[in-house]
Amino acid sequence: MKNFLFIIFFVFSLAVVQAQDFVKAEIEKYQSGLSEKFGNPETSILYPEDLEEFNGLEFYPIDLNYRVEAAFVRTPNEKPFKMPTTTSRRPEYVKYGEAHFTLKGKDHVLEIYQPLEHTPEYEDYLFLPFTDGTSGADSYGGGRYMDLKIPQGETIVLDFNKTYNPYCAYNENYSCPLTPRQNHLSIPIYAGVKDFASKKKP
Fold it and tell me: pTM, whole model, 2 decimals?
């Protein structure tokens, strides 16, 4: 009986490790793809001075503790609003729902938005901007973004290892949505992309 239980435990542990390895590989692929996009002269939005010496984006070490399954609460009666940006542009969004989750021993709620203007292929796209305890230190002061899809059920996975900076963190010629104050996390998120030191930006 003990041998049987040991085998069950071993098989379960192996399955967990394999699943974690798969997730880490997906995160690595995402992060390397992001760096490649910034390093490619045809797709990069970097200033020429920065592109010339670009050796890849800097990320926090991958940490699956910052990949959480949150309760997804839809908010169907919200009114559209114009989201402030770093310029005079005011794109229209609507609050689509809320993510409720526990991280580092604290309960958190983040609002999730949907752009009103989108192409058919982005019909299920959701947008999550946030700031946290690293904003303005290791990570970009204006906050970071996370791309999501409308979930089928009542949960949604928030993988902070896949967060990215707005374009204006690299090039001030771009217009970027400002993170709403209600989406500030009181804890530091040591996952995802770090801030970028531009040679041209002050």
Answer: 0.88
